[in-house]
Amino acid sequence: MPVNATETPNLSLLRFGAPIKSGAAPSLASATYKSRLLQLFETLNAGWTGYHGHPWVPAYSAVLADVAGLHSLRLAVLDPPGSILLESSFEGDQAAHLESLRTALGPLLDVVFCNAEAYAGTRDRTGDQFAAWVSSLQPGAALGAAAATAAELTCLAPSVGSAASVASPDAFAFAVHSAADLERLSNLYVSDDDRTILRRAARCLLATLPAQLEAKANDADQAVKDRFAEVIAWFQGTAPASEPIVCPAMAGASAAGSSNIQVNGKKLVMQVLTDIEDNYSNSGYLDRMAGSFGRIYLGLDRTDPNYALQSSASNRAIGTITEQDAFAQAINATRDALRAPGASFDIKDISDKVLAALCTYWFDIPDGNSVISSGSVLPFPPARCPGHFAPPSGYIFQPEPGWAMKLVGELDGRILRSHVADFVAAQRRAGIPPNGVLSKALFAAFPKSPDDDDLLTRTLIGVMIGFLPTVQGNLVAAMAAWKGAMLDSMRHDFLSHPEKDIYERASQVIRGPLMAAMQQAPVPPAVWRTAVKAHDLGDNPIVHVKPGDRLFVNIDSATREDLGKNIADVSPVFGGDRSLNPHPTHACPGFWMGMGVLLGIIAGTLEAAPTLAPMTASRASAVF
């Protein structure tokens, strides 16, 4: 077996590396496979060494005790060269040890190595197949002296005293907290396979939690159970949402009794979004909005007369901003941000500053008083732009947001509502129209004060929520996917291109790779609708949709299908093409505005990048 296995008296070392997948991971947080690994390792380290500063109470059960002859296990993210390293020291036969790793630690290995190339998992592999996969990998020694450890997880085989720690009075609360930490990663593990892998890993690592949940019945423990009810339901697999019906691309398949329907493939995705027969409703968004920044037209259907009344002015105004105008504003704002003292090539920091400046130009927010410029999502006043706009977006539009997204999405939304209301009140007192083309249009659309002030506040927030997270999420995902040789090549092509007009040059050099990156890993990857009529969806086989069924509209399946056919179309990322007739009701009128901002920020960073430090990898997924 061509793995690196060194022997000392009574102790052998197994060491191999697997290359990390390139590009963006299917997630709700604009993550690459590497950044997803880094967050996974951070979470696993907290649970393995003890919960939040309490090393005498490790949250995870002694799963390592079941691995034959194990002395220690080390997992690491190496960058360069971009690999996952496994290193285990053990006594006894190597083949038996490898098989024991597969059977005892399969769920842990799966949640780590599903981020590696050509890994099919331990659950569906025989021992010989798993050994063959290991044999196909680089020996650890071949990774080279230049390999740098970006993150690592080191676990010692449990000692005799570990059982007493797990049984301590605080172990139950710490185990539930650790389950919550693992559940929070569900925003990074969103495909059906990935969700199963993450939950299996949680059950493996927290193997004692089911018995603890059964045994704990006193008031204090019940309070913990009540507080973390959603997390516990996720861990136990008893959450209200049932296993989904799956409609594969260009086809469909049903699972009787399920209330969730996964809609995949360009044809079905656009059929649901366009909804010619009014089979679906956006009204589910309204309940989530109500607990956050308040209800607006994004939760209304075209059959509701209030939709046209509330949306027409903003849609018209947004549609007047051309791609070229948005590009000019964005590239100038990017140049300003990069001229600031201490500027570094961290695309999240750059885009925080640029998007705040653009929002001030178009919306008069942030104004530096009621709302400040900041990328922080932490739910504390004052209101922050763009930071506080991302969690409400994720909470409202993600089909199944986790409890943490729900909590922060509601809190940030309430902060925005309070502080943007202060901005509106100050503007009304001033008695003059705001400067921004979009804020001016909205103030004119809702002229009555104080009667219209709250609706105006909510609409301002909602329009900005439709703009900011989509642009920043796709920007961060694209730049993370290009990091390295591809980004260097794009920079060279952009700087050496003979076109003098910088917008035309950006269009020729950047547009193609940008659209491909957006198609590969779109943000958002999915939205959802609620069925209001009984009807059939798909044709091979037919899915019988019932009123009340939820449809998870997987935008990424549509864009990846097009990408595989060399069709350059990112309109599904924006909810559809508003220029078509008919078009989806909620197709974004700011398609060209958004694309212009993306092209402008990327052009500005490519223009200046040779003078900047490398992007911080750990920030690549910090949008949501």
Task: Give your account of this protein's structure.
The chain has helices spanning 33-49, 94-113, 127-135, 162-166, 171-184, 192-205, 209-215, 219-227, 229-236, 266-274, 284-290, 305-319, 323-339, 347-363, 390-397, 403-430, 437-445, 453-482, 485-496, 502-509, 511-520, 555-564, 591-608, and strands at residues 4-8, 11-19, 70-78, 83-90, 138-139, 149-156, 245-247, 260-263, 280-281, 371-374, 383-386, 526-531, 535-537, 543-545, 550-554. Strand 13 and strand 14 (543-545) form a beta hairpin. The strands form four sheets. Strands 1, 2, 3, 4, 5 and 6 form a six-stranded antiparallel beta sheet that branches. The protein has two domains: 4-236, no CATH class; 302-496 and 583-619, Cytochrome p450 (Orthogonal Bundle). Helix 1 (33-49) packs antiparallel against helix 5 and helix 18 crosses helix 23 (591-608). The chain is built from 23 helices and 15 strands. Mean pLDDT is 83; it is low at 1-7, 51-57, 159-169, 240-258 and 613-624. The two termini are 43 Å apart. The chain is an alpha+beta fold.
Poorly predicted sequence stretches spanning 5 or more consecutive residues = 1-7, 51-57, 159-169, 240-258, 613-624
Specify Rg, calculated over alpha carbons: 26 Å
Strand content: 5-15%
Number of strands: 15
Structure described in brief:
The protein has 624 residues and is an alpha+beta fold. The chain contains 23 helices and 15 strands. The protein has helices at 33-49, 94-113, 127-135, 162-166, 171-184, 192-205, 209-215, 219-227, 229-236, 266-274, 284-290, 305-319, 323-339, 347-363, 390-397, 403-430, 437-445, 453-482, 485-496, 502-509, 511-520, 555-564, 591-608; strands spanning 4-8, 11-19, 70-78, 83-90, 138-139, 149-156, 245-247, 260-263, 280-281, 371-374, 383-386, 526-531, 535-537, 543-545, 550-554.
